[in-house]
Amino acid sequence: MSHTAHIPSHRKPRRSASKVVLRSGVAGGVLSTIAVAGAAGPANAEPVTTQTIEMPTLTSGLVSDFTRSAEATQRVANFLDLRAQQDTAATTAAQTAKKFRAEADRKAEAKKKAEAAKKAEAAARAKAAAAERASRAAERTTLSSSSSSNSDSGSSSGSTTSTVSKTTSQATGSAATVLAFAQAQLGDAYIMGATGPNAWDCSGLVQAAYRQAGVDLPRVSQDQSTAGTQVSLSNLQPGDILYWGGAGSAYHTAIYAGDGEFIGAQNPGSGVVKRTLDWDPPSGAVRVL
Which of 48, 59, 85, 220 is the most exposed place for a label (fewest CB within 10 A)? Predict the structure, then answer.
């Protein structure tokens, strides 16, 4: 007996050929069964499909779509901006129209007030003219009575007109200048307080006429009636200042034009006119030139 006969071996025991063949046959049968079963499956069974997800490719057509979309968005933005501008313009136009309407209403109201004031002024002038005429009538009555009661050297003047000079001499020098200016204003309007160039009151016309000859007269009738040397109505010369009322308290003045006539701004009804002394006999006269 060998001395290693009792030492157990550490190698795995070898399988027998019959067992290997058996296992191979079983495995082959199973695989065959699976293959046969797959082949013998139902004819209408859906085949197993595999789905593949593809990422989009940025082609030129896709880029064009993006461009058109951007352009459409821009057009919408432009439209909205235009609409906003139109709304703003409409609001501004409405505000401007409202402002114009208010201004038109204000002007219309101002015009209405001005017309009312003008009518009131015309009424006041007419009333003043009526009062002036009444005052003149009263003054003439007083002067006539006074003249009738006075006498010297056995003769008296029965009326103011009987003592009025009918001088027919033509004006010369400074008097001609004064009368030429007064003559040029015939037909102008009478407005109380006016001093030209197209409207006058009585003393305003006299003052302006004498200014042409370099003479600076006072502005009002009261002062003009004492601005020169008192002269008789029977000794008048062209260019003399005629006054109605008392010297220093006269209410009207005019300029003697010669030939028994005078030029003066009479009243709102007649304006600047030439009249005879008999039409409205003056109370007195002063000579400045």
Answer: 48
In sign, the C-alpha dihedral spanning 98, 103, 107, 112 is positive
pLDDT of 8-43, one tens digit each? 555 555 555 445 444 545 455 544 544 444 444 444
Q: pLDDT digit string (tens) for 171-215? A: 788 999 999 999 999 999 999 999 999 999 999 999 999 999 999
The continuous run of DSSP H or E covering 274 comes out as strand 272-276
DSSP 42: -
Phi first, then psi: what are they for 152, rounded to 5°? -140, 135
DSSP alpha helix (H) spans, the chain? 17-39, 60-149, 173-184, 202-211, 221-224
Q: What is the pTM of this model?
A: 0.46
Instruction: Kindly state the tokens that stand for 3.
Output: 């001395």
How far is it between the farthest Cα atoms of the chain? 222
- Token pair of 193, please? 């307080």
Asked if residues 156 and 147 have their Cβ atoms less than 8 Å apart, the reply is yes
Nearest to 225 by CA among 254, 183, 264, 185: 254
204 neighbors 232 (Cβ within 8 angstroms) = no
Helix 173-184 with 202-211: angle, nearest 10 deg: 130
